[in-house]
């Protein structure tokens, strides 16, 4: 449930806001967008999921790597 909330909160920014702001650089869009999603979702997992920072960051990293590569299929 928390993972779905994190995705719902970050996807609009990653898909619509960052491409508009950083229209001149695809690499900036990917780097900044994915970094934002990773850190914001880790914060949600830490606060709402009551995970340690280490586990929240690891879970967010794995979730975002999986999401990124599944999006390429």
Q: Average pLDDT across residues? A: 89
- In percent, how helical is the residue content? over 70%
Major sheet: none
What is the strand content? under 5%
SS class: mainly alpha
Count of all domains? 1
Radius of gyration: 12 Å
**H/E element sequence:** HHH
Overall, the morphology is elongated
How many distinct helices?
Answer: 3
Unreliably modeled segments: none
The span between the termini is 24 Å
- Per DSSP E runs of 2 or more residues, the count of β-strands stands at 0
Describe the structure.
This protein has 73 residues and is an all-alpha fold. It has one domain (2-71). The protein contains 3 helices and no strands. The protein has helices at residues 2-21, 26-47, 53-71. The two termini are 24 Å apart.
Topology:
Blueprint: H1 2-21, H2 26-47, H3 53-71
Brief account:
The protein is mostly helical. Helix content is 84%, strand content 0%.
Please give a handful of descriptors for the protein shown:
73 residues; mainly alpha; 3 helices; 84% helix
